[in-house]
Amino acid sequence: MDLKRVRTFVTVAEQGSIVRASQLLRITQPALSRQIADFQREFGLRLFDKVGRNLVLTGEGKQLLVDCRDLLQRADSLSDRAQMIKGGGDTGVLNVAAASVGTEVAFATFLHRFRRRYPGVKVRLFEAAGSDLVTMMARGDLHLGVCLLRSVQAHGRDLTTHPLQPVELLAACHPSFPLRRGKMLDVADVAQHPLLLLESALAVRKTFDAVCRVGGVSPNILLESAVPSNLLALAEARHGIAIISSLVQTRRYNLRIVCLMYERKPLREPLVLVSDKRRTLPRYAEDFRDQLAEHMSNYFTLPR
Questions:
Q1: Per residue in 55-92, pLDDT tens?
Q2: Are residues 205 and 277 in the same domain?
Q3: CATH number at residue 30
Q4: Distance of CA 64 to the CA centre of its chain
Q5: Among residues 107, 124, 152, 172, which one has the fewest Cβ atoms lying within 10 Å of its Cβ?
Q6: Is the same domain home to 284 and 196?
């Protein structure tokens, strides 16, 4: 079996288009079409149906796609292992992802430290979260990913997890804002004030909304935004209270930070560093994992 044809099949299946797949693989469309035809002929199966300009997997194609992805994972793992043996474990490429809101905490101040230890390792960063990150991991696009544990529990059966410091839900406001004193406040204490919230699709917002529903609280929403810095700037200007996660850095703002709780329990989400258990991690990836866990514990935003 030709692994090149396997990779071509997987790419066409994921892109749904000969044109996009050929651009991604950097081969001509006729050559790509021949590879797909040869692959189908080898197995005696029709793997695609043409719908308009797009290619859609047949039932047989969907079944074969799972096994082909697994085969490529194992081939990549073998390649990584060979690279480790050849280079003594200190050279190679490391693909790592985190949600955009966690990139600053996870990578901005950490990468210099890692590069000093492994100058021969090229680190490539990606922004991804939830099911998107898990999908990239399953395709073999990532070695490591920082995400919430519930994303792995929902989508990542083949992933192994390494615990990081939990993400806490925080309220941020100007020190003079008329918010009840204390380092920890109940959701009901902040909901009556004008709230600056992240968009409803984001994990922190979903947790906050769920607690409000359970507690029978109607939040007073002033603004919803996908950009945490917008919320923090308005909170600093005394317009309301920003509801953020401890992954968001607040040091450049003059803000009072309070932990949120419900029924005397802090609102927090387990955060993990994930990898594919089917893939052998290079030594430098294991060191990256261990050092990052230690590093992130020192950079979370929490009340002093």
A1: 889 988 888 888 888 788 777 767 666 665 555 557 78
A2: no
A3: 1.10.10.10
A4: 27
A5: 124
A6: no
